[in-house]
Amino acid sequence: MPLTDDGPPVTEAARRAVAAVWRIESARVVGALARWTGDFALAEDVAQEALAEALVRWSRDGAPAEPVGWLLTTARRRAVDAFRRRSALDERYALLAGPLAEGEAHAGAAPGGGRPDDLPWDPDRIDDDVLALVFTACHPVLSPEARVALTLRVVSGLSSEEIARAFLVPVPTVQARITRAKKTIAAARVPFELPPAEERRARLGAVLSVLYVVFTEGSTATAGADLLRPDLAYEALRLARTLAALLPDEGEPYGLLALFELTAARFPARTGPDGEAVLLEDQDRGRWDRSAIRRGVAALGRAASTGRGLGPYGLQASIAACHAVAPSVAETDWERIVLLYEALGRIAPSPVVELNRAVAVAMASGPAEALALVDDLLATGRLPGSHLLPSVRGELLSRLGRTAEARAELELAARRCGNARERAVLLRKAAALG
Fold first, then answer.
1. Which of 255, 22, 24, 58 is nearest to 159 (CA)?
2. What is the DSSP string of 27-66?
3. Which residues contact 408 (CB under 8 A, 6 or more apart)?
4. Which residues, at least 6 apart from 216, have a Cβ–Cβ distance to it below 8 Å?
5. Helices and strands of the chain, counted as H and E runs
6. Secondary-structure percent of the chain, ordered helix, strand, coil, rounded to 5
7. Are 221 and 227 in contact (CB under 8 A)?
8. With contact defined as beta carbons under 8 Å apart, do 332 and 322 qualify?
9. Tens-digit pLDDT profile for the chain (434 aa)?
10. Which residue, 13, 9, 125, 25, is CA-closest to 70?
11. Is residue 220 classed as helix, strand or coil in its secondary structure?
12. Among residues 69, 51, 62, which one has the least CA distance to residue 13?
């Protein structure tokens, strides 16, 4: 949310009030405006204009008793002004182009009916508005990068600066992705509505994948000085909770929610006092968030209760649950984890899944069998440039007593790793091999 200091003075109290309302209510505000105007880009633009006005007005008059209603009223007025400008422009075009049939000289969607002071706020439609907003921001016509940026902007209420900082890209890049995404949605005439029931499940995958990308980056940053980016991960977790609540009959949103809860439960133990990475076998399991584990297990139960079988996210959550309930690494049910990875590999095959299966095989059956699986991945070139493969291979070679080879693999992994905390762990392991 752009909070500018240009113009009249802005008080810190107003800044905090606007930021709090926007972070909590942004999806509902933009969703209601998008339904009312029929124009996704306009809805987001007038909502941002209302925020800028709120900073000034609330600094002067104090926050209103109904801040969401205030934002909606102000944004609606800005939208009406935009429609009037479009109408005036259409009239000028009509004069130049000659008489047009009635109804042809218009631009965009017309404001909704009702009294002029009616708010675009229907309490019975709020959940649908939020869900429609999520599906629109994650529409398949957009690139994966644009879906992530637009979702974080219009559904989560994050500013371009916050998104850029989270993914370590320049602010202009984020702004360009958001602008291009809005233009693409308009050009493709994507309606602001829930997709029909028969299309919803097919398009749900795009929504889930965006949340998965955001959470994954938050749980293990691809680059930078910090291992975790909790704010990003918890934002994805919040959105997953909302999505699961809005689609109670779908299993995979609950599977994704379970995966996020069970993974986030380990966050308190994954880093040391100075932010250094702590490996699974060295983590203090007493610091794991037991409430999050209970929520994750419950969500996994909801995912399984649909009767359609677990999907890719539900299977990953089942693997996370094996770790969450185990007293130690040695007492983990590695045989079950191997089976779960085999099932995951059949419905969502990827080299990363195969690599993780190899790790589980090493724990269940020994490093020699696992090394054969990793060497097959290496031979087929399915993870080029990744630090993950040499990292795992170095571990397996070390366990087999092939010290020199292990050290070379770990050093290669460190060179390829973009995250400073992970790189430090790899270099420490390599140095320990002499």
1. 22
2. HHHHHHHHHHHS-HHHHHHHHHHHHHHHHHHHHHH---SS
3. 394
4. none
5. 19, 0
6. 70, 0, 30
7. yes
8. yes
9. 444 445 567 888 888 888 888 877 888 888 888 888 888 888 888 888 988 898 999 988 888 888 888 888 888 888 888 777 766 555 554 444 444 344 333 333 344 444 434 544 444 444 578 778 888 888 989 999 999 899 888 887 778 887 887 777 889 999 999 999 999 998 998 888 878 777 777 788 888 988 998 899 889 888 778 889 888 898 889 889 988 988 888 999 999 999 999 999 999 999 999 899 999 999 999 999 999 999 999 999 999 998 889 999 999 999 999 999 999 999 999 999 999 999 999 999 999 999 999 999 999 999 999 999 999 999 998 888 899 999 999 999 999 999 999 999 999 999 999 889 999 999 999 999 97
10. 25
11. coil
12. 62
Task: Kindly state the tokens that stand for 280.
Answer: 């699974």
Calculate the dihedral angle through the C-alpha atoms of 204, 206, 210, 216, rounding to the nearest 10 degrees: 90
Query: What's at 327, amino acid-wise?
Result: P
Are 83 and 43 in contact by the 8 Å Cβ rule? The answer is no
Q: Quote the tokens at residue 132.
A: 């429609």
SS (H, E, C) 248-316: CCCHHHHHHHHHHHHHHCCHHHHECCCCCECCHHHCCHHHCCHHHHHHHHHHHHHHHCCCCCCCHHHHH
Which amino acid is located at 112 in the chain? G
CB count, 10 Å around CB of 316? 24
Q: Distances from the Cα of 351 to the Cαs of 364, 380, 383, in angstroms?
A: 20, 10, 7
Nearest alpha-carbon partner for 227 in 181, 188, 266, 189:
266
54/43 Cα distance (integer angstroms): 16
Coil vs helix vs strand at 414: helix
- CB-CB neighbours of 373 under 10 Å: 18
Whole-prediction pTM value? 0.75
> What SS3 string covers 151-182?
HHHHHCCCCHHHHHHHHCCCHHHHHHHHHHHH
For residue 224, the SS3 value is strand
Task: Please state, in angstroms and as integers, the Cα–Cα distance from residue 176 to each residue in 2, 163, 179, 195, 232, following that order.
Answer: 16, 12, 5, 27, 21
